[in-house]
Design a protein that fits this description.
The protein is of the alpha/beta class. The protein has twelve helices and eight strands. α8 runs parallel beside α9.
């Protein structure tokens, strides 16, 4: 690692994590294993990443989301990563074109948060909450993510999208029937300490609430010990975890294995999100939910095998 005694014009590791979606633990692992990234040290002896390294990490995150392995990507120079991004542009899951007619990108570039919120709210009213979450929202997430990965959106514009979308879902959740309408399963949602993205949790929470589930979300970066305590305190039937596309597959599998080993056997463990590892490698006792639209069927299957005493 490069040591410096002068001023460093770079980003701290926490900001790099937010800008790229790559967990800081993963950044450190790549640094040791592959020799990249190669951060300098600031005056407080903390890691500092230059803009060229952050741009390369953004490209790697986008390619990992298309199913490529980090071990192949990290050693490549930026020029080859750009070429690979162009060559694989059509290999990810079908979705809207980045340069399509959807007004969301224009609203983000105009920094029109109010207009974006109104546009999205109209979509929810038109499609219904379930239709919005299972149809339009995944397409929008991909649209914005692809634009960000190619530099067509700035990091703060992508953050604006996330913030407006989270506010929309929080508001929609408040409009759903209250606790008197809820029924098992009791679901505790969270992400592990290596995952900082929470939009998937909100999507899952809304879909579970629409099925009448008793659901509580602990948010992102929850230590395993706290998650276990919460599962016991809330008498959870299911613990649900979300993993984003840029999450390290090996860290995801390790976290799931640890949690499955420490949870009571009666508590189901569901894993969802767009991390390539979810559903590709099976772990005994872990149910993969690859598509948000699969939540209703999963809930119905659980209820069929766990009938309510009052039923």
């Amino acid at each position: 690692m490069v040591q410096t005694s002068g001023e460093v014009n770079g980003m701290p590791i926490a900001s790099v994590e937010q800008a790229t979606g790559i967990a800081r633990a993963t950044l450190r692992i790549w640094e040791r294993r592959y020799g990249f990234p190669r951060p300098e040290r600031d005056l407080r002896d903390e890691r500092s990443y230059g803009p060229e390294q952050v741009e390369k990490l953004r490209l790697i995150a986008a390619l990992v989301a298309r199913g490529l392995r980090p071990g192949r990507l990290v050693p490549l120079p930026t020029e080859q990563l750009v070429a690979l991004a162009d060559a694989t542009a059509g290999t990810h899951a079908p979705g809207p074109a980045v340069d399509g007619d959807d007004p969301v990108l224009d609203l983000l570039r105009a920094h029109d948060a109010q207009g974006l919120a109104k546009h999205l709210d109209e979509s929810v009213r038109s499609l219904g909450l379930a239709g919005f979450i299972t149809g339009r929202m995944p397409a929008l997430n991909e649209l914005v993510g692809e634009a960000w990965a190619r530099g067509a959106l700035q990091v703060y514009e992508e953050h604006l999208y996330t913030e407006v979308m989270e506010q929309l879902l929080h508001h929609a959740l408040l409009q759903l029937p209250g606790a008197g309408m809820q029924a098992p399963p009791n679901v505790v949602l969270a992400t592990l300490p290596t995952e900082s993205h929470g939009l998937g949790l909100l999507m899952a929470q809304a879909m579970l609430a629409l099925q009448g589930c008793r659901c509580i979300s602990l948010g992102v970066r929850v230590p395993v010990a706290e998650l276990l305590a919460a599962a016991a305190a809330f008498d959870a039937d299911i613990v649900g975890l979300s993993f984003s596309a840029s999450h390290s597959p090996s860290l995801a599998m390790r976290g799931l294995e640890q949690l499955r080993g420490e949870l009571p056997t009666r508590v189901a463990l569901w894993a969802g999100g767009s991390c390539p590892a979810i559903g590709r490698r099976k772990i005994a006792g872990v149910q993969a939910i690859r598509e948000i639209g699969a939540v209703p069927a999963a809930v119905a299957a659980w209820r069929a095998t766990n009938p309510s005493p009052a039923a």
